[in-house]
Amino acid sequence: MRPAVFLDRDGTLMEEVNFCRDPADVRAIPGAAGRLAHLRRLGWAIVIITNQSGIGRGLISMDEYEAVHAELLRQLDYEIDGAYFCADVPPNITPRRKPGIGMIEEAVRDLGLDLRHAYFVGDKTIDVACGHAAGIPAILVHTGHGADHLGCGADLEARDIVQALDWIIARETIGSKA
Ligand SMILES: [Mg+2]
User: Fold this and answer.
1) How far is CA 70 from the centre of its chain?
2) Whole-model pTM above 0.85?
3) CA distance 100 to 126
4) Is 10 considered catalytic here?
5) Domains of the chain (ranges plus CATH)?
6) Which chain residues have CB less than 5 Å from ligand 1, an ion?
7) Is residue 8 annotated as a catalytic residue, yes or no?
8) Which residues contact 159 (CB under 8 A, 6 or more apart)?
9) pLDDT tens digits, the chain, 178 residues: what are they?
10) Beta strands in 92-170, from DSSP E residues, in sequence order
């Protein structure tokens, strides 16, 4: 079983774009790809967990979602092991939609992940709540909507995903030497 970092997409891995449907609008956070590569070399799985109600609302087609995803993967040097999205539109939601943990459970099953060694990183309270509902530490980043969700109970707040992943790498490297 592999340790894992679960990552929100919009506002966390890439700059926030409201209902992003055009790959030309995709901007990965600078420096993220290098940290993801580092974690994967250490044996960690990297998994995107994203709410995409724009699909359910008919604002984003599946082709557009796939095109945006492909461009993000390209900008991240393909250092991603899996990606899960939920198209549910509130208030008609299932346990897959964050803060529900359905997508995490699917990833654990599909990829053989170990939740005893896992983190969630995101820019909203629902991301922190999702991580905590799964029993794992959660980091709030200040990019995207993060500034509106300060003090939401995250185990750590970080400037951006680079600082969050550096913290995980440092913590886990120290842990492995103990
Ligand atoms: Mg987000």
Assistant:
1) 16
2) yes
3) 9
4) yes
5) 2-177 (3.40.50.1000)
6) 8, 10-11, 123, 144
7) yes
8) 141, 142, 143
9) 999 999 999 999 999 999 999 999 999 999 999 999 999 999 999 999 999 999 999 999 999 999 999 999 999 999 999 999 999 999 999 999 999 999 999 999 999 999 999 999 999 999 999 999 999 999 999 999 999 999 999 999 999 999 999 999 999 987 555 4
10) 113-122, 138-141, 156-158
